[in-house]
Amino acid sequence: MEQHSGPGKSLLRFLTEPSHVNFGGKVHGGMVMKWIDQAGYTCAAQWSGTYCVTVYVGSLHFLKPIMVGSAVDMRSQVIHTGRSSMHIFIDIFAGDPRERGTHRCAYCLAVFVALGVDGRPMPVPQWVPASEREKALERYALRLVEHRKQMDAEAAEILGDAT
Ligand SMILES: CC(C)(COP(=O)(O)OP(=O)(O)OC[C@H]1O[C@@H](n2cnc3c(N)ncnc32)[C@H](O)[C@@H]1OP(=O)(O)O)[C@@H](O)C(=O)NCCC(=O)NCCS
Questions:
Q1: DSSP tag of 21
Q2: Residues 6+ apart with CB under 8 A from 62
Q3: Does 54 contact ligand 1 (Cβ within 6 A)?
Q4: pLDDT of amino acid 114
Q5: Is residue 83 in contact with ligand 1, taking CB distance under 6 Å?
Q6: How far is Cα 89 from Cα 158, in angstroms, rounded to an integer?
């Protein structure tokens, strides 16, 4: 398994249970989304040292089903920071613990904002990518920021005023 430790990285590991799955023995997509939020929050709260809220989850890809009794690895890492926002990449691996190794089942990008005691966004430590992979992931996050700006403008035009 690729090393997943160090600054800006967090790892949640657990076994899937019958309450996580549908009749086919596969984990519900909504359950995976809950784990994504928990894993991303853990990473963001550790990086910022404060309470954080989710403001965006996207680029979510379900690649392979996760079966009951699987060992799940939720590998989260900071890939970009703004003033108060943290862009967290969440890479989800799973496999039968009786066999060696796991495989990627899903991945996504989530943005969390650090909040001060007044409930307002507060500054976070800046993420400085070091490895080529970290630099590439930050470029990916920045490209998604630009992409979202365009798509948000388009959505605003279509949806109009919601009030
Ligand atoms: C988080 C919150 C307090 C921020 O308030 P705000 O008035 O939008 O504050 P700002 O405009 O200064 O935005 C703060 C940061 O969030 C980022 N942000 C806000 N909404 C975003 C979104 N949808 N996607 C990506 N980034 C977002 C901004 O870019 C900014 O980043 P920066 O400080 O790094 O430049 C407010 O948006 C909120 O309460 N949202 C709901 C959060 C929530 O209920 N989550 C679900 C349960 S945890």
A1: B
A2: 29, 32, 105, 106
A3: yes
A4: 98
A5: yes
A6: 29
Residue at token pair 């991945």: 107
Instruction: Spell out the residues 6+ positions from residue 69 whose beta carbon is closer than 8 angstroms to its own.
Output: 15, 16, 96, 97
Q: Whose CA is nearest to atom 4 of ligand 1?
A: 121
* CA pair distance 137, 155, nearest whole angstrom: 26
Q: Is the CB of 124 under 6 A from ligand 1?
A: no
Provide the whole-model pTM: 0.95
DSSP letters, 114-134, are EB-TTSSB---PPP---SHHH
Measured from the CB, is residue 121 less than 6 Å from ligand 1?
yes
Q: How far apart are CA 159 and CA 111, in angstroms?
A: 23
Sequence-ordered alpha helix ranges (H) in 8-161? 29-48, 132-159
Dump pLDDT digits (tens) for 20-47: 999 889 999 999 999 999 999 999 999 9
Report d(CA 90, CA 140) in Å as an integer.
13
Copy the structure tokens of residue 160: 């109009």
Q: What is the CA(134)–ligand 1 centre distance, in A? A: 24
Beta bridge partners of 78: 88
User: What domains sit in the chain, N to C, each tagged with a CATH number?
Assistant: 9-127 (3.10.129.10)
